[in-house]
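Aim 2 progress update. The chain analyzed this quarter is reproduced below.
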Amino acid sequence: MTTFAIATLGCKVNTYESQHYLESMKESGYTEVSFREAADVYIINTCCVTNTAAAKSRQKIHQARKQNPQAIIALIGCYAQTASADALAALQADVIIGAGEKGTLAQRITQALQQRPIQAEAPGDARALRVFEPLNIHSFSHQSRAFLKVQDGCNQFCSYCIIPYARGSERSIDPTEAVAIASQMAAHGHQEIVLSGIHTGRYGRERGTSLLELLKELTAHTPAHVRYRISSIEMNEIDDALIAFMQEEERIARHLHIPIQAADDDVLKAMNRPYDTAWFMKRMNEIRKALPAVSISTDMIVGFPGESEEQFSMALQRVENDLRFSFIHCFPYSKRAGTVAATMPMQIENSVKKERVKALSALSQKLHHSYMETFIHRTVDVVVETKKEGLLFGHSSEYLPVYIRCDAARAPKRVSARVSGFHRDGLLAEEMEESS
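Predicted structure tokens:
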């Protein structure tokens, strides 16, 4: 019995890809064990979006080597793609796969086991990739929610971001393949499918289609119980037609995660973001008018080169008084070699970044509590994910964390529940009826 273990860092796209690696390894006759155990093969699905993520990728390799010095080490993903040849050589991985040929991982591992010692080579240029690699999967084990990777790559080149170099150009899954994978997921009992990508909102542009057309195909050709969630989408990719479709199609989750990255026009310009705060706010108001209860969350980077205390203070005020996101994923700016921002003057001290993260995170908690409060005495549709403290736990269409009092003998996958108040980090609700 040859064992393997997988460690996954980074985004939802990596989560999807790791599920493919898991399935392909099992299909090839390998047995999965925990990454904390001794294994014959360790697969590290890496991330490089920040220095911390890159460091964690390297730490996982050292952990694997310590647990079994004789193990095959497979390094795959964004850090494997962007690290220098010298850095990769120092890690002494047996298999290195970057942005392309991820579907060959199991085969490459088998070859490494048979041919060692083997000299792994650094990946080629990701920007040369033009064809989407679907990496089909059947389900996410023991989960009500599943991820479906529909898009890869990015052409935007924000000044702080390494991802276009790590993932390559934009490319999308064939809609027929997407429907087939989603149908398999539905057949395995998944109640929600999260459409994921590096730049999900630009799905299909190189194919002459769009994310809206994909959503129409998915809702038309998959079982009615499946709810679809857009993992992340840029504001300039949300047109009136998409909002109109969300108004009429309840199977699209009432949650849009729209990264603003900064709430100051000068910082946005330096970031090479394609909008200003006034236009972003205008579009937010239009979306909320069409979908009054919609959750709009965001990503924000603090401590970008040149961001002054005054700019940050004003940004906090705009977020609190005008933008009022339902919650904020807050990140300190991370200097990435090879990006435009890395060469900019007036780099911010880490201590300042930490203070700004603390301030913005506190505001996010305040806004999240305020948004959740509007759902007290209302009914929410919850996809159940687990049990906590004798209560069911899951997320509503608006991505609200909800704890539900329910008959302990039952284990529904989906519940309609009436919110009565707060509980821990979310809402407390009473089951009304099982939705499916």
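The chain has four domains: 3-124, 128-253, 257-374, 379-434. The chain has a mean pLDDT of 95. These observations will guide the mutagenesis experiments scheduled for the next reporting period.
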